[in-house]
Amino acid sequence: MFIDFAKISIKAGNGGDGCNSHYHHRRKRHITPDGGSGGKGGDVILRAEFKIHTLLDFRYRQHFKAQNGERGGSNCKKGKDAADLKILLPCGTLIRDIKTGFILRDLKNSGEEVIAAKGGLGGKGNIITHSQSEKGQLGEERDVSLELKLIADVAIVGKPNAGKSSLITAISNARPKIASYPFTTKAPILGVLACDDFSCVLVDIPGLIEGAHLGKGLGIEFLKHIERTKLVLQLVDISPEATNDPVSDFKIIDTELKSYSAGLEKKPRIIVANKIDLPGWQTNLKKLTKALGEKIISISCLEKKGLEELIYEIRRKLQTHSC
Ligand SMILES: Nc1nc2c(ncn2[C@@H]2O[C@H](COP(=O)(O)OP(=O)(O)OP(=O)(O)O)[C@@H](O)[C@H]2O)c(=O)[nH]1
Ligand SMILES: [Mg+2]
Fold first, then answer.
1. What is the CATH number of the domain that holds 196?
2. 251 and 177: one domain?
3. Statement to judge: residues 16 and 108 lie in one domain
4. Mean pLDDT of the chain
5. Domain carrying residue 41
6. How many domains does the chain have?
């Protein structure tokens, strides 16, 4: 299951208490302090990892606590520092402090991390203070929200059954389910297109229908995963079996993108007509070309026609828009 929002509570470890102890010198008849300091509490670190694609794990677990530092001991023994607690997140996760609304970090790239709660410092032992030892500091704690907005270069959008999953399968390493009924894809799917010295990340967005912004079909919540993409690939099924009016099919998607109101409709785009292996597609392509007055790339995912031209165009557009 794909989950793109979660709330968790994190608590860093407390510092270990410093020790209050004394060494008794038998012959000299005096005592000297020998209490060691406490160890540092573990930090809670949030880290982006390319292998993770969803926030699903946080459905089952919301509380995370790093270990406390060890107490200092007598005989100058320093308490051990506790290990940090690392929580792995998908690339593209925005971390926000729920109480203040402050964004702690937007973890975009794999390996990026942020200390979201700092472990408390260990208290000083009386060997350092020469008087009373100190208590360890408390570790930070906070509630944070995690919001995933996938990082991809190109978003594939279109009506259900347009062939979005077939396309991402044909040109990338993604292998989503493909079927002849609508809403086969229920969550965004990422795929890497690699061709010679060029590579980019594609995302297959679940199908949109008229009124998606009003909650119809799967709604438009998945459109947040287009916010960061550089290019939108709008796929239209132009087979007469699917439609007599490709222009209205196209406009429906355009309207839904506008309704999301994040400027998605203003992103550079490529219009692609699919299923040109089915008879009668030429008439629909003419209608669409005339109405839009824009370049349209026609392809067949089934017969792998036009895919090279499409990949070339994706590459050209990404480079033109200095992405
Ligand atoms: N004839 C023909 N059929 C195609 C082509 N591309 C996809 N299809 C078929 O169209 C149907 C829908 O394809 P999908 O790739 O699942 O479509 P989708 O846009 O991902 O659909 P949803 O996930 O439901 O939004 C499947 O039966 C595919 O085999 C094509 O180029 N030609
Ligand atoms: Mg699909």
1. 3.40.50.300
2. yes
3. yes
4. 95
5. 5-148
6. 2
Cα distance between residue 270 and residue 276, in whole Å? 17
Backbone dihedral region for residue 92 (phi beyond 0: left; psi -120 to 50: alpha; all else: beta): left
* pLDDT value for 24: 86
**pLDDT for the residue 322:** 61
E runs forming strands in the chain: 5-11, 22-25, 30-33, 44-48, 63-65, 85-89, 93-97, 103-107, 113-117, 141-148, 154-158, 189-195, 198-204, 231-237, 269-274, 296-298
Q: Which of 178, 238, 281, 297 to mutate to test the pocket of ligand 1 (most atoms within 8 A of CB)?
A: 178
Are residues 186 and 131 both part of a single domain? Answer: no
* Environment of ion ligand 2 (residues, CB < 5 A): 165, 184-185
Taking only the tens place, the pLDDT of each residue in 238-261 is 999 888 899 999 999 999 999 998
To the question of pTM greater than 0.90 for the whole model, the response is no
Same domain, 92 and 75: yes
Count CB atoms within 10 A of the CB of residue 154: 26
For residue 254, the CA-to-ligand 2 centroid distance in Å is 19
Contacts of 282 (CB under 8 A, 6+ apart): none
Of residues 202 and 26, the one with the higher pLDDT is 202
Average pLDDT over residues 30-48: 96
Output DSSP code: residue 121.
P
Compute, in angstroms, the gap from residue 234 CA to the centroid of ligand 1.
14
* 1: pLDDT strictly greater than 90: no
Q: pLDDT, tens digit, for every residue of 151-171? A: 999 999 999 999 999 999 999
Ligand number nearest CA of 302 is 1
